[in-house]
Design goal:
Largest sheet: 5 strands, antiparallel
Helix content: under 10%
Shape: globular
CATH topology: Methylamine Dehydrogenase, Chain H
Oligomer: single chain
CATH architecture: 7 Propeller
Number of strands: 35
Radius of gyration: 20 Å
Number of helices: 1
Length: about 500
Amino acid sequence: MGPASQAGPQRMFILKHRTRSPLFFPAMLLILLTAWPWGKTSTSPISVVQAALEVNTALYMLPDWVSEGGDQGVEYGASVASAGDINNDGFADVVVGAWKYYVNDERSGSAFVFLGGPSGLSQTLYKQLSPTEPNSYFGFSVCGAGDVNGDDFDDIIIGAPNHREPELESIGSAHLYLGSAAGINETPAWSKIGIGRASQFGSTVCGVGDVNNDGFDDVLIAATTLSNPEINEGGVYLFLGSALGLSNDPAWMMEGNQSYAVFGYALAGLGDLNYDGYADFAVSAPSFQNGTDEEQEGKVWVFYGAADVSTLAPVWSAEGNQYDARFGSALDSAGDVNGDGYLDLIVGARGYDDNLTDNGAAFVFYNNNGELNPTPNWTDSGSQEFSGYGISVAGLGDVNEDGYGDIAVGAHYYTDDQSKEGAVFVYRGSPVGVESSPTWQANGNKADTEFGYAIAAAGFVNNDTKADLIVGAPAYKKDEKIVMGRAYVFLGADASQVFVHRSYLPMLLTGH
């Protein structure tokens, strides 16, 4: 989600998994937390809570902000992203998708925008964005678009992959909302309908920076089930920014060229990897196959930006090299994890086997003087079978202000005390790269919550120079039976603080 890569992995093509980990939570702290008078809930359809904080060496132990879906089965938090700074007030804002949210009694989907401020994200919902088309799955993918029209206000791109036209089911659409001093208008400034029946255009959206160095940020949009002619090969489209906003037609397009590759499943803006002045990006196809014994191994491609984007071609690629690894389940810029001045790449592979079945893995490829290394320099894997480790990854920026980029990995089926509660692991950067073990871990601590299904860098929501993290848990249940979904924001913390492993206690934050 840092350049919010894939705005969270996409549920249409996911095989569900699970996991487990140890818990350290001092008894005295638990007593204090249980007795604490937790914050208040807003009266909007989306409940929001702010909580007291404890600190460690990566992020605060407890979420500063929690937002809850307002109805059953809405998948709130299935996609999360930084929205950038939509009103240019110096504080980062966030957007949360709920692709099954009810609009006019139809599961059309919505996206919800919250503004940052000196105290963090507001407890009040700023804006609910909704489609005019019923059952379009609006909010299935969400992402900050950057500043596409050069007005110094960041913009938001939303995907609706189930948008329908006459005789064209699931053609899909994407919608751009422009930032301004007054905030976001509820009417999109730009909308694009896909090409081809059942192509699911908008299944992934991503702001990728200024790919052609013309002063305007650009956007990638994927149609992951495009068939032209290969069935479900997938395709990715690049739309350029300008003073008038996004171009009506794509300036570049590439297809998977392999049946069921699902090219475009994850997208990431990588910044300027080689310092040539052009923003670069990555595209994954987690069902890519190279050889008869490596079905669904997955593959990731990297593209360098250029003045003429019509001829863009991959300059780097890597494969999972293992049956059903699903390499490319998620990807993002890792930031500069070793302080060498070059940006690195993180890739998730939720189906990877590392001494266990489908325990999942994450890989970081370091950037060597402007070129990504051909093999990963760092890897870690889930501690449990079917944990979903690598379902989501994020480059967070520098959460503890030590000068090195930090990363996060989600495992939405991780099991500790509760089955499939989910977990997120944060690893710090260092002079020698990513540390071997996570410094910080948060668990959903409620069965079937899928905490960590989607994660992203939240930017600096309180503008304190320490990067923040947003986490989605789309299967979170209220009252043990009503599935509503949740989103959480954890604030970056000082490197000098004492580390405490934490497990999230959701019942303490709802006010019930």
